[in-house]
Design a protein that fits this description.
This protein has about 475 residues and is of the alpha+beta class. Helix content is about 20%, strand content about 35%. It is built from 13 helices and 25 strands. A hairpin with a 5-residue loop joins β2 and β3. The protein starts with a helix and ends with a strand.
Length: about 475
């Protein structure tokens, strides 16, 4: 194109921009989500957004003092697989890790990932700001299933720069975003990209996780950092990458800000986040199920089980119903439903649209907390046994929902204390105790009785997913 022709084209585009949007709106491209109309517009910089957002993103340093045990079999992989490091001469070592975090209030409330601050034994947390100031911090709320932790800066001045939350539901595929964090410990770094997908759940580890996918480069150390939009507001917490090499390949994932905000606000008020319990088992739609139900789209969550007197049954849901919409938002699978309910919160009512016999049916679902186990339903195990430090519970429907367990009978481990024998041996929340010393365990009293007598060799069988693991441990 000749220079004169190019100039004329640019002038026409500029005139059209003024005519269409008016002088006051001429440069509001980010808000209107339109391509830049001229070459000068392409020369825009992200610098003003970074200057405003970067001071609220911190580096998080974690040091854990871990009690370990030296054994003559310490390098034997079979021994480490089945016995961990729980036997031998005690010693202490320090484990260090780093990540990122985001200040979301002037008094120093920080949101980050649970896996960034997860430590074993005594843990120290130090945060470093972009202006080189450093402070101690403590964990005031943590949810490993959601991979969210909330920290509080200690001895701060109450005047920290912070990021405001934006509505992550307003994001669209193609929106510009910036990722700010501390990759590989090299110092604060900013990368740019677009939102490449929404409501990703394929890599989720819990039933309420969905992610924003972005091609803004995210690397190890970025975990817990900020994903910001073009208004400089927080739309997500960077969490993980998909990579076969350990480096960024343009597929990164962030926890949506609407869920992060629930945890931050609850922590600020001294409350623990409780996920709504619906009293139903949901599964993702499959081609076979869709074909069997006569549906054209493989999308939504299928109600496969209802618990008597649960909220879902009382609201009128039926087994076989397909939930396609929650509060006006289409849902692709079961995780998307649980995510929507979690952001809605306890005490609210969710509006569901379900497909039943080929027709749409509206359901109003009250969101309540799961019934708490009674005093005889849960126990903390302690003593000279392999389950020392484990909290166990009868598998009530609410416990099965919380731990994503398919069965509703038996005994499950609901938590494991950091640094305990049970943790060193590899027991995890969600493990189902099948037998101890060859005796079947059907309730918590069975388990408590079985570990009360010291044994020369402990034999414990646990079910983890579809596998049954056999453990033998010297007493």
């Amino acid at each position: 194109m000749k220079k004169s022709t190019f100039g004329l084209a640019m002038a026409v585009l500029a005139a059209l921009a003024v005519f269409t949007f008016g002088p006051a709106d001429r440069f509001s491209f980010a808000q209107d989500k339109i391509p830049p109309p001229s070459r000068p517009a392409i020369q825009y910089s992200y610098a003003p957004i970074v200057r405003a957002a970067a001071p609220a993103v911190v580096n998080v340093y974690v040091r854990s003092r871990v009690q370990t045990f030296n054994t003559p079999f310490g390098n034997d992989p079979w021994f480490r697989r089945f016995f961990g490091e729980a036997f031998g001469q005690p010693s202490e070592r320090v484990m260090s890790s780093l990540g990122s975090g985001v200040i979301v209030s002037p008094d120093g409330l920080i949101v980050t990932n649970s896996h960034v601050v997860k430590g074993r034994g005594e843990t120290e947390i130090r945060v470093a700001l972009s202006d080189k100031r450093e402070f101690d911090a403590k964990v005031i709320a943590q949810d490993e299933k959601a991979d969210i932790a909330v920290l509080k800066i200690e001895n701060g001045d109450g005047k920290f720069q912070f990021l405001q939350f934006d509505d992550s539901d307003s994001l669209e595929v193609g929106d510009l975003v910036l990722a700010i964090g501390n990759p590989f410990g090299v110092g604060q770094t900013v990368t740019s990209g677009i939102v490449s997908a929404l409501s990703r759940s394929e890599m989720a580890e819990s039933d309420s996780q969905v992610f924003i996918q972005t091609d803004a480069a995210i690397n190890p150390g970025n975990s817990g950092g900020a994903l910001v939009d073009m208004s400089g507001r927080l739309v997500g917490i960077n969490t993980m990458i998909y990579s076969q090499t350990g480096g960024s390949v343009g597929i990164g994932f962030a926890i949506p800000s609407n869920l992060v905000r629930v945890y931050a606000e609850s922590a600020a008020q001294g409350r623990k986040v409780e996920r709504p319990w619906i009293g139903a088992k949901l599964e993702a739609m499959s081609h076979d199920i869709a074909e069997g139900l006569g549906l054209k789209r493989v999308s939504g969550a299928v109600v496969t089980r209802l618990y008597d007197k649960g909220p879902a049954a009382d609201a009128g849901l039926n087994a076989g119903d397909v939930i396609t919409n929650v509060d006006g938002v289409e849902v692709a699978d079961a995780r998307a439903v649980y995510y929507r309910l979690a952001t809605r919160g306890i005490g609210q009512t969710a509006k569901l649209v379900v497909i039943r016999n080929g027709s749409n049916v509206d359901i109003s679902l009250p969101l309540i907390a799961a019934p708490k186990p009674g005093k005889n339903d849960a126990r903390n195990l302690s003593g000279n046994n392999p389950l020392d430090g484990a909290r166990i519970s009868n598998i009530l429907p609410s416990v099965a929902d919380e731990l994503s367990i398919d069965q509703t009978d038996g005994v499950a481990i609901v938590s494991v204390r950091n640094g305990s024998v049970a943790q060193n041996l590899g027991f995890q929340p969600g493990d189902i105790i099948v037998s101890i010393q060859g005796k079947n365990i059907t309730n918590v009293l069975d388990a408590e009785t079985a570990v009360a007598t010291r044994q020369r060799v402990w034999q414990v069988s646990v079910k983890r997913g579809a596998r049954v693991l056999q453990l033998q441990v010297p007493g």
